Every structure is written in structure tokens, then in C-alpha cells.
């Protein structure tokens, strides 16, 4: 059996033979057949929820994790990282334990979820950089708390986002990195020296760079320049047209370099729902506008994102190209996950391959299909 489609990177026809659920061979052929595009499934390193499934809600259970995986597959995401925001230690420990148990019970969930991302609680306590995180639970890094949470997660915590302005941040980062967990700089008001110290200690990523920031910054120096200039940091970007204007997105990706840039959705449970007013765990009372902007109700502040990563790919493709946008949503985040995630090669699960239609005129990915077509 085989999957057939056009390669967005070369324009060639790709024939992926598969057996027993895995790709066995990849053949390239010339031709101009009217076929859908084919690529690795999208890899989203920052998912708070989607389609009504909320990872940060009071009622988080295994069914929520399973349902979220299915909802994301419907929009082309085959690998995702559950992201848990600032909360009490007990709540975070409970959430990571639920995700770990879902992986143990459901092999398809284990295949889709490589690790968990803790976005907080060791972030900035200042308005702006804190974003919509609950200030009540913002607190300094605590290695004992991390170790207890990691035990509850059965070792599943693979990424922590923090602000390195806290005293002892560099020591905390070095200790966390020694366990194999990645560290990202984000939701920060740290100065240039503190960011450099964090990277020296082992931080390798920037979380949704350009957001979780003050509305106004000194022209220079500031924490955005510091992260953009450091080639040791790869950076995530929310490409939805609301978190970053296209000019800022293009300039930041060019400054960081295409190989060190990746797209994230930062989607929350409201994603996929119609415009209206909602109450959510991330942001509290929020409003989803007709143009897809998710706001803390009555304010201009964003409360996460409502668009799936496929929409981000389409938006980024209009600014760069479809191959470049796909690279930032497949291969680049796939390298962070490791293994063959984000690649098309023998051995990858056929369930991590997608086909889709694309038109630069319509500007969207449509008719997304995940997995095998007989």
C-alpha cells in the first residue's frame, strides 16, 4: 500500500510505501499530476487545549487528553506537547499525572505526546510579561518542587518556560538541564545579562518570542534583542496574525534564522469554537472576536490563541513560502522533540503523515487527511 502526493519542497511526486502501520520506502517521481500535497504531520510544541478540550481545566481527565489528541489530528497535528500554565503545585502535579496516565493507557496518545511543557510558574510577576497567567501563583524557581512534579509526571516533563530574572535562576536551569529537561526563556522581564546567564546555564529555547512582553520597551537594550541575537536559542512564534504583525514576524524569523525558528499555536480550549464570550482556565472571562482574536474580556490583552497550527502555517506561508512555513511546523520543532518526528522517511508511523490541499490565493490548508489512504 502507498500514500501518494506532491512534495512541497521539491514539487516532485512522493510515493510512500507502508506496511504494518509504518513507512517502508519513499520514492520520488517526476510529473505534474493533480495530487494533494504530502508532508510530515504538524508538530506543535505549545498546546493548552483545543476543540473544547482543556488541559488546564478543573475537570482534566484521561478522556480530555484522548479527545484533544483526536481534535488536533483533525487539523493536521500529529505530535503535540501539552502545555500547563502557572498554577498551584498540587494542580500542576495532578495535571502531569493525568497526561502520563493517558500515555500509559493509550499507545496512540503516547505516540502523539513526547513530553509535557510547564509554562510557568517561575515567570515574570509584572503586568505585560506575565500575560494572562494568574499572578497569585507566580513564584521563584524551586528545584524541590520541580523534582516532586517530575516524580508525579513519571519523568514526562520535557520543557520548562521561566523568566531568568529570579535569583538563583542559572543554578536552577543547570540542575534541570542535567536531568534532560529543556529550558526556555519566556514571559520575562530579565535584562540582557540575566538572559545570557540563562543560556550559559543551558537554556536553549525562547517561548513565543515577541509575546508575553511589555507593551512598550526601551529601544535598546531589551530582552527581545537579547534573545534574537543569541544563536544558541531557537525561538517559537505564534503565527496567527494577532500575536505578531506580519512585519514583526518576518523580521524576527529572519533575525533568528529559518533553521532556529518554529511555529506554535498556543491554542486554548476555545480554539475551533464560534465567536462569543467564554469562561476558561487560561485567561478567565474571555471574548473570541469575529476575526479570531481571543481577548481577556473588556481588555486589549490576548488570552492565548484560538487558531490551530495549520492556520499558522497558512499565515506564515503568505509571508515566506509554503515549504518554509512547513519547515517551521515540522522539521524544526521535530528536531527539538528528537528521533524522526517531523520527517518523511522509512520507519515513521504512517499515522504521522498528512496530505492536504493548498492555494496561495485562498491562503489556507484544506482537506487535511491524516494517515493512510488505501
TrEMBL record:
MF GO annotations: metal ion binding; N-acetylglucosamine-6-phosphate deacetylase activity
Alphabetical GO biological process terms: N-acetylglucosamine catabolic process
All copies of domain Amidohydrolase-related, residue ranges: 38-348
Entry-linked Gene3D superfamilies: Metal-dependent hydrolases (3.20.20.140)
Residues given in the record as substrate binding sites: 132, 211-212, 219, 243, 302-304
Active site, UniProt feature: 266 (proton donor/acceptor)
Binding site for Zn(2+): 119, 187, 208
UniProt keyword annotations, A-Z: Carbohydrate metabolism, Hydrolase, Metal-binding
Similarity section: Belongs to the metallo-dependent hydrolases superfamily. NagA family.
Protein name per UniProt: N-acetylglucosamine-6-phosphate deacetylase
Source organism: Kribbella steppae
Amino acid at each position: 500500500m502507498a500514500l501518494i502526493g506532491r512534495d512541497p519542497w521539491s514539487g516532485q511526486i512522493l510515493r510512500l510505501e507502508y506496511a504494518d502501520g509504518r513507512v517502508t520506502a519513499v520514492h520520488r517521481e517526476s510529473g505534474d499530476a493533480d495530487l494533494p500535497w504530502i508532508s510530515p504531520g504538524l508538530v506543535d510544541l505549545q498546546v493548552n487545549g483545543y476543540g473544547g478540550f482543556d488541559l488546564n481545566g478543573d475537570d482534566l481527565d484521561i478522556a480530555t487528553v484522548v479527545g484533544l489528541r483526536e481534535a488536533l489530528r483533525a487539523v493536521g497535528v500529529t505530535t503535540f506537547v501539552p502545555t500547563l500554565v502557572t498554577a498551584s503545585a498540587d494542580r500542576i502535579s495532578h495535571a502531569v499525572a493525568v497526561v502520563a496516565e493517558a500515555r500509559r493507557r493509550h499507545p496512540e496518545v503516547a505516540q502523539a505526546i513526547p513530553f509535557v511543557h510547564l509554562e510557568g510558574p517561575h515567570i515574570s510577576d509584572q503586568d505585560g510579561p506575565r500575560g494572562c497567567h494568574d499572578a497569585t501563583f507566580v513564584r521563584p524557581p524551586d528545584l524541590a518542587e520541580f523534582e516532586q512534579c517530575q516524580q508525579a509526571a513519571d519523568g514526562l516533563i520535557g520543557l520548562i518556560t521561566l523568566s531568568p530574572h529570579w535569583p538563583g535562576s542559572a543554578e536552577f536551569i543547570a540542575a534541570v538541564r542535567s536531568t534532560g529537561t529543556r529550558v526556555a526563556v519566556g514571559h520575562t522581564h530579565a535584562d540582557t545579562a540575566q538572559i545570557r546567564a540563562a543560556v550559559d546555564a543551558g537554556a536553549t529555547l525562547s517561548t513565543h518570542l515577541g509575546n508575553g512582553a511589555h507593551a512598550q520597551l526601551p529601544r535598546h537594550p531589551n530582552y527581545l534583542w537579547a534573545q534574537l541575537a543569541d544563536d544558541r536559542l531557537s525561538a517559537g512564534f505564534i503565527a496567527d496574525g494577532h500575536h505578531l504583525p506580519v512585519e514583526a514576524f518576518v523580521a524576527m524569523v529572519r533575525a533568528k534564522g529559518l533553521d532556529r525558528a518554529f511555529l506554535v499555536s498556543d491554542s486554548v480550549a476555545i480554539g475551533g469554537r464560534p465567536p462569543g464570550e467564554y469562561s476558561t482556565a487560561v485567561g478567565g472571562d474571555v471574548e473570541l472576536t469575529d476575526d479570531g482574536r481571543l481577548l481577556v474580556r473588556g481588555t486589549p490583552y490576548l488570552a492565548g490563541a484560538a487558531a490551530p497550527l495549520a492556520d499558522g502555517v497558512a499565515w506564515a506561508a503568505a509571508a515566506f513560502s509554503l515549504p518554509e512555513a512547513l519547515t517551521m511546523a515540522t522539521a524544526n520543532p521535530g528536531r527539538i522533540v528528537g528521533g524522526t518526528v517531523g520527517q518523511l522517511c522509512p520507519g515513521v508511523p504512517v499515522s504521522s503523515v498528512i496530505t492536504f490541499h493548498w492555494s496561495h490565493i485562498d491562503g489556507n490548508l484544506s482537506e487535511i487527511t491524516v494517515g493512510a489512504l488505501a
